[in-house]
Amino acid sequence: MMGIPQPAFYIFKCQQSAPPGMPKPSCVSQNNPESQELMQHMSQVLMQKGIIGTVQPIQTSCLNRCQQGPVILVEPGHTMYVGLTKDKITRIIEEHIIGGNVVSEYVIADEMWGEPVPPSAMAR
Ligand code: FES
User: How far apart are CA 27 and CA 38, in angstroms?
Assistant: First the structure.
């Protein structure tokens, strides 16, 4: 039986913006006008490529790597991309999402993205 297919990917885009005047860095920033257009750009590229639906863009709040924003997290794969621009997002869609190859230049540094701690090791 053919069911409704799962999405192939979810792309979580951090849309957190710090309140005006706050020195804290954030993925959407008044100091970086392009950062305010990245979510819309990502959705447009997914639509242009005809892959929206099997690829679901999701707006999230903080993903806890604010110093390196703008960031996205691609699932499955647990791939965190940092320091994003429109051009970098287009390339990630073309090469990773469609092409199947992680764009390693834009992936967060290993020391900032160590192996996860299994909840079973932490649970009380
Ligand atoms: S504001 Fe985007 S990761 Fe924290």
Answer: 10
Residue with tokens 């979580």: 12
Q: Which residues contact 68 (CB under 8 A, 6 or more apart)?
A: 82, 83, 108, 112
Cβ < 6 A, ligand 1 pocket: 14, 16, 26-27, 62-66, 69, 71
Closest residue by CA, ligand 1 atom 1:
26
pLDDT, average across residues 96-117 = 97
Give distance in angstroms: CA of 72 to centre of ligand 1.
9
Q: pTM for the whole thing? A: 0.94
**Token pair belonging to 78:** 């647990």
Question: Rounded to an integer, what distance in angstroms lies between the CA atom of residue 56 and that of residue 2?
Answer: 21
